[in-house]
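User: Fold this, then the next.

Assistant: Folding the first:
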Amino acid sequence: MSSPARASAEGPSAASDEAQIGVGIGKQVRQARTEKKLSMRALASAAEISQPFLSQIESGQTMPSLLTLYRIANALDISPSALLPADPDPEVVHVSRAADATWVPVSEAYDTAHTRVIHAGETSLQEYVIRPGEQVGDWFETDGEVIHYVIEGAIALEIEGLGIWELGAGDAVAHPGALRNRWHLRGDGSARVAFVYTGG
């Protein structure tokens, strides 16, 4: 399987798609910030990012990582999916093709894992590909309910204050999104994990 980071960068079409998504996210962030009557400095401080970085996001110069997107959404008290570009022609049935997937970094770390996000209403599906040495261990929390499902490989799911669960292919865990959690890659191989949340 080719690297998501490499796959998203192959060819002008993929790069153009990612740039368009970045511009769309920037517009949504700027609109939400304006509606909340927050200055750029106030939002950057609340989201724990620099003001110049936020400016680059709002202008579409930078594609934010998933972690940054969640921090901004939490600071704005809205769902992360509200910051994703709206479908200009929404359909009752929406098909997302693997060949059209845009993979985004989970964090700003150089060796971060990558994910793609598919959302419909208040439900989002994130597919993660984690390779040995890649970072994916940041604590995470969200509103609503979440499900972790291991497609390939093995991970450990750590829920703060409750314990660690070793998960292999086909295993799944569901819990309230407010419980802080993080993953650890297990074994020498890669892992693919589906993460679903709803109501956030």
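Now the next one, as you asked:
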Amino acid sequence: MKILVADNVSKHALETLRSESSFEVVFLPDKPGATAADEIRDADALIVRSATKANAALLEKAARLRAIGRAGVGVDNVDLNVATQKGIVVMNTPGGNAVAVAEHALALMLGLVRRIPQADGALKQGRWEKKKLIGTELRSKTIGLIGFGKIGLEVARLAQAFQMTVIAYDPFVASAIAREQNVRLVGLDELLAESDFISVHASATAENHHLLNAASFAKAKDGVRIVNCARGELINEADLLQALESGKVAGAGLDVFEQEPPKDFKLLSHPNVVATPHIAGSTEEAQETVGIRIAEQVRDYLLLGVARNAVNMPALSPEEYKKMEPYIQLGDKLGAFVAQIAGKRVEEVRISYDGGLAELNTHLVKNAVLKGILSHVLSEQANLINAGAIAQSRGIEVVELRSSRRAAFSNSLGIALKTETESASVLGMVGIDRGLRILGISDIDIEAPLRGVILYIRNQDVPGVIGRVGTILGDRRINIANFALGRKQKSQEAIGLVNIDNHLPDEVLAEIRAIPAVRHARVVDLA
């Protein structure tokens, strides 16, 4: 079997592969893309870091490719859709460089507060400027971590060694996990208001794009210092520059940028910015670790069929997957639905399987439920492979219940979600036409298609609500595909699910929420 190593990895990683007599290892560091394109035609596995782009054009040439190993965390340079379509498993090495990135974040902080780059530059130019280079101590300061995964945890440990107070914002970490590390979980606004330093450790999801911007800086302490060793897209660089120039932000330590390498160096040239060229994870130890790990993972997959840290492939035969696919989709959509109507900080997930579904191997259905729940607020990318492990690491209790009884709706799937502030549940099924349907929400029977954009309404069971909602949507030319109603007997509580053809503008949602009988209204996006 041929393994193409397209980027630099350690010699020990190469030795791990070459020690297998059945492997032919082709090592092409620093070679042009055309060479990799030629060699990949008959390769069984491809190992990359960040330089080689495993895009659609390259993967289309790979007639035999079975595995792609990414020596690192991010898989932005791998076309996951094409890889999945071609049956190629993609694996990465999460956590392998967590210590390196955390140490770099602290190094940037120290560089900022002790003005080390300025002192070094002045001294090398023959200037002895002690009075101009008065620093600030980290001790007794508060650091706010945006994201409390593996890297955030390492930063917390290092910061505590400097006698700093650590707070964190992460909507999907249980309070108990943070308390074990002597870290207090807070809301984002509270973190902004309390932090002397803000260190970003989230992923570049659509929800997190420009998470720190002019509005964020306005809520922060005067003289706050910003550190980013995660993704450049998390910070609006123009807003950061303006905050630096006004003095609102006292300094910024940046290892990542919206465009790499940057074309505009105005931000980097600011005297209160310490910048490095995306090297936070680049230590000898980290590169050694991720190189050996990915070599072992690729070896084990090719020889044993064991996929560790896979980001795109379910562990089922094609026949089994075809049978389970509608239930996997149901779990994903139901999980996404209940996550969007409940609070974010989940403590417990109960999954119930009824009828024939209870007798099947539901491991991927469970992971699909967790993926649907986690994907809306999590900094990490949850998928069918890693969702269970992520839930466990976040302190979320997952309980599965099975019943073979023949209920009113056979093969139904139920999810009950418990957060720190509220609970919610949902029941669904796969129809005869393989369409996905909601059957009930929080003990109220209601049937509706589980797809697209849904307006979810809880209201008092009084006349006129349906008409008011319909009028508002009609006036805004928002088409209603389906309008389902349910109510709890002997109570004043009702639920409405309105499937609409396009997204609901915020001002329209506000108008619906202003209806006196409406207690709660939210848009659920399952597109």
